[in-house]
Amino acid sequence: MNVIASIEQININPQVLQTASNPYTGLYKAINELNHSLITNVRQLLTFVLAK
């Protein structure tokens, strides 16, 4: 399960969102949410592939 741990490390630190200057906060949030859903999808895909 090292692959999944490595993928999780890619995730953007939530503190980056809070320190980001105002106009970009929404952008960082959107990127973080997209990043999180990508990680979730990849984890599900890996779980499915490894289960076979």
UniProtKB/TrEMBL annotation:
Protein name in the entry: Uncharacterized protein
Organism: Nostoc sphaeroides CCNUC1
